[in-house]
Structure formats: structure tokens, C-alpha cells
What does this fold into?
Amino acid sequence: MDGVKMNKKGPTISMSRRTALSTMGALAIFGMDSCFSYTWASIELDQTLEDLLVKKISEDSPSIILHLPEYAYDGSRVPFSVEVESPMTESDYVRQVHVLSERNPFPRIATFHFTPRSGRAFARTRIRLAMSQNVIVVAELSDGSVLTTSKWIEVTLNGCKED
It folds into this structure.
């Protein structure tokens, strides 16, 4: 019988050989997931960009102002802000701003929605980054056009690990 048992020295954990072997097997199988997550992240990033009708990140748009530090010691809380210069009128405004990462386990970091009543297309938050990588911003405008920009950031500590 597996479980925690009490003796005179305190609690002891007992485990059958079958339980121990199945636990080690599960750890070996599910632990391998982290080895392949960055490959899957690049595939998911390509699919995400395709979903957003962006075939390739081309030159940076001067209309997008991206504030991101060059270096981040801790990737779990990186300050981030983005602003897209737009008149924000009924006929010309920013509909959505997507924030993507190249090397996070999941490439979509955030999506911000705007309307002409927003006044300006500006968002500020903290993001999590797994490692040094490009952070990509894709802005969808009301006329269907898409603007992109990206910025490289050096990250020392992984902010996406599970504790």
C-alpha cells in the first residue's frame, strides 16, 4: 500500500516498485516536452502570423512605437508598452494590436482591441519571456492593412518555466 505512514520518528513515504516505475516513466515522457517546445513555438508563430494575414515580418513600421528594454534580468515581468500612431477616426483607426514572441512556448502574448472611441491606440503591461528573442507587434487597421515591427531583447532568467 502506497502513501504516508507514521512511525516513532515521524512520517515516512512508502511507494511500491510499480508506482515508482510508472512515476519515473511519466516524468521521462512528459519531461521531454520541454525539449521540443521551442520547435513547436516557431511552428505556432508561423501559423499565428499566417492567421493574421502576415506572410513575413518585413521592415519595421515607423507608425508603431514599441517600448521594451534591451536587457531583462527576469523574464517573468518585462515592462512593455506599444503605441500606434493613428488619427482614430471612424474611417481610420487601429482595430487590434497583437504582441507575439519568437521563442516562448506559446507565441501569442497579448491582443489589445481598440475603437475610435479609445482616443489613441496605446497599451502598457508586463509580459513574460522565456529567453532572449524578438518581440513582434502586429497592428491591424480598420482598412484591413497590417503594420508590423519587432525588437530584440536579451533575457537572463526564463520567465515561462513552471514552478
